[in-house]
Design goal:
- By secondary structure, the protein is of the alpha/beta class.
- The protein folds into two domains: 198 residues, Spore Coat Polysaccharide Biosynthesis Protein SpsA, Chain A (Alpha-Beta Complex); 113 residues, no CATH class.
- It is 48% helix and 18% strand.
- Strands 1, 2, 3, 4, 5, 6, 7, 8 and 9 form a nine-stranded mixed sheet that branches.
- Strand 1, helix 1 and strand 2 form a beta-alpha-beta unit.
- The radius of gyration is 19 Å and the shape is globular.
- The relative contact order is 0.12.
- It comes from Stenomitos frigidus ULC18.
Length: 322
């Protein structure tokens, strides 16, 4: 049996699936099975997968049921000691599996390991850093405050962890990964690989409607998590809600164009400050405020052009990690 099961849910992923699979094939750690769950694709996803010659690749096709269910179907097929997930438009650096497996083996009591993330645009040309934190051990408090794992393509879990926690919540349309990590965190130790190994692709398409869905599901996850939280942690709820609004404001300012995006971001930042006034002192709030002021002063078009130039400069420095 392989040491690692890599689960890739794929729905109409023809534009990116080969690049994603290639990033797994390039791993310096080769003892893995690659399970692709074709979630009812109607494009060329299945045809492209059929062109791959790799005995480690296993493709299972089902009717479309959404990302959480696809991950659960992958778990049901997995035979590895360690299980990790990769969305069909994201990428890994070549040492992702090697370093995460080593981290779990070096800490037998740990149930999960995560790495740092770089966020890239649709074309994989512009990058900006995601969360680069190093929370280890009991991370339950930090997990309640925000999804510092940043992406469902990041974490690696022991099989025993998944057997204890169960499967992803298939009723969620977004944030199902954060919900899962919140269920892992109370009882399992986390370890970190302090290196950017996840290249998370953010699509700008229909982001306005996606933000509304994300907002609704964030609230569901936060409400559920704090209902279960011990009394000494319930006081963190407003801070968690504040962080949620900052995160969504960031998406508005980065991926939605026009004056309406600025207005939506302003409303979210106002809610964030009202819920947790100390958020005014945070670096993230200062950056978001700077971006918002740029849009209001220069116009959305000129501000976005300037911010893209800054992003390109970052990209030039970070291309070496791919």
């Amino acid at each position: 049996m392989p040491s690692v099961s890599v689960i890739v849910p794929a729905y109409n992923s023809g534009r990116t699936i080969l690049e994603t699979i290639a990033s797994v094939q390039r791993q310096t750690f080769s003892d893995f099975e690659l399970i692709v769950i074709n979630d009812g694709s109607t494009d060329k996803t299945l045809e492209l997968l059929g062109s791959i010659q790799d005995s480690r690749l296993k493709v299972f096709s089902y009717g479309n049921a959404g990302l959480p269910t696809a991950r659960n179907r992958g778990i049901a097929q997995a035979t590895g000691q360690f299980i990790t997930f990769l969305d069909a438009d994201d990428l890994w650096t070549p040492d992702k599996l090697e370093l995460q497996v080593a981290a779990l083996k070096n800490c037998p009591e740990a149930g999960a390991v995560y790495s740092w993330t770089l966020v890239m645009d649709e074309k994989g040309e512009n990058f900006h850093p995601g969360k680069s934190v190093s929370f280890e051990g009991n991370v339950y408090r930090e997990m309640l405050l925000s999804n510092f794992i940043a992406s469902g393509s990041n974490i690696m879990l022991r099989r025993e962890t998944i057997e204890a926690v169960g499967v992803f919540d298939s009723t969620l349309k977004s944030c199902e990964d954060w919900d899962y990590w919140l269920r892992v965190a109370p009882d399992w130790i986390f370890v970190v690989v302090p290196k950017s190994q996840i290249l998370y692709r953010q699509s700008s398409g229909a982001m306005s409607s996606k933000i509304d869905v994300m907002d609704k599901n964030h609230l569901i996850v936060i409400e559920k998590a704090f209902e279960k939280a011990p009394p000494d942690l319930k006081r963190l709820k407003n801070q968690s809600l504040s962080n949620k609004n900052q995160f969504l404001a960031q998406l508005c300012l980065t991926h939605v164009s026009g004056t309406e995006a600025a207005k939506q971001a302003f409303r979210m930042l106002y809610k964030s400050i009202k819920l947790y006034p100390k958020s005014l002192l945070s670096k993230s709030m200062r950056i978001l405020t700077f971006k918002l002021l740029l849009i209001l002063i220069l116009s959305p078009e000129r501000a976005n052009s300037l911010l893209k130039q800054i992003s390109r400069l970052r990209a030039a420095k970070r291309k070496a990690v791919i």
